[in-house]
Amino acid sequence: MITSYYNTTKETGEELAVSKAKAYTQEESIMDIFSDRQLMNMTPSDVWHIYCQEFKSVPLTSIRRALTSLTNRQQLVKSDLTRMGLYGKKEHCWRLARGKDKQLELL
């Protein structure tokens, strides 16, 4: 899997390699979460809660970054469904991409 680490702080060398590896691991772990719950629609807050229980504590913004990257790679789909999130604001839900979702993106 290609990771999407956004190097906004101009990291180099070992520091950059470590950051890319962490982003890769987060994205793989998030895909595991969705794969284990194939029919579920989940908000970033839902994913964050599960991630922190099953793996380790990370910032909610890291989860949002990973969801965006996985959506851009057509592994997840952002739906129109919304639910209340951690901070009292509505959040969109994501789900695993299905065959037809991927085909629609190609058209």
Number of strand elements: 2
Overall outline:
globular
Q: Remind me, CATH topology? A: Arc Repressor Mutant, subunit A
Largest sheet: 2 strands, antiparallel
CATH class: Mainly Alpha
Helix and strand element order: HHHEEH
Uncertain segments of ≥5 residues (pLDDT<50)? Answer: 103-107
CATH architecture: Orthogonal Bundle
Structural Rg: 14 Å
Tell me the number of helical segments per DSSP (H or I, 4 or more residues long). 4
Instruction: Kindly state the percentage of residues in helix.
Output: 40-55%
Q: On the 0-100 scale, what is the average pLDDT?
A: 84
CATH superfamily: Winged helix-like DNA-binding domain superfamily/Winged helix DNA-binding domain
* First-residue to last-residue Cα separation: 23 Å
- Beta-strand content bin: 5-15%
Order of strands, main sheet, comes to 1-2
Q: Find the structural class using helix and strand composition.
A: alpha+beta
